[in-house]
Design a protein that fits this description.
The chain is an alpha/beta fold. It is built from four helices and ten strands.
């Protein structure tokens, strides 16, 4: 499952982005869309752990940069894309590490190309590489990202790591 949030105060643009994503060759039924029409509503749902977030820069009370700064406190790995009608990147916009900065004035063809790149990046980010390791007669699946180091033993090795998900060493 891929969770995609689209946050924009323009309802038609939210629908337009969703439709463009659905027309990309990499689209699948495993995409779940969450639509937010204000920064406040988006900030109320940060616990949903989105894989991809499209944020409008100019919204009502809570603008895109405020929403992005708060979002990054909860999720550093998600792909963040700014969408705007005005070109005003400031240095603080890059503190939240956006993957793309899309202009609403882009042609549909240009936007489709950008969205295809963005969706492919989201899918690549979600892929996790595992190794299967025998341990006490059981086969354990260990994520490569959780391995800190491997030490050599006489007839094998010992894998040392830390799991972010359950905060346990193994």
């Amino acid at each position: 499952m891929y969770k995609i949030a689209i946050c924009d105060d323009d309802c038609q643009y939210v629908k337009y982005l969703e439709d463009l994503i659905k027309t990309t060759p990499v689209y699948s039924d495993s995409f779940i869309f969450y639509r937010y029409y204000s920064g406040e509503k988006f900030l109320e749902n940060l616990s949903l752990d989105f894989d991809l977030v499209f944020l409008d820069m100019q919204m009502g009370h809570v603008n895109g940069i405020t929403a992005a700064l708060n979002f990054r406190k909860y999720n550093e790995e998600s792909i963040l894309v700014f969408c705007t009608g005005v070109q005003l990147p400031k240095p603080e916009f890059f503190d939240v590490q956006p993957f793309r900065y899309l202009m609403k004035s882009y042609t549909e063809e240009k936007l489709k190309k950008e969205i295809e790149i963005i969706i492919s990046k989201m899918i690549d980010n979600k892929k996790e590489i595992f190794i299967i390791v025998p341990n006490d007669g059981k086969m354990n699946k260990i994520s490569i990202n959780e391995i800190t180091y491997i030490s050599n033993l006489k007839r094998g090795c010992l894998i040392h790591g830390f799991s972010k998900k359950n905060n346990q060493c193994y």
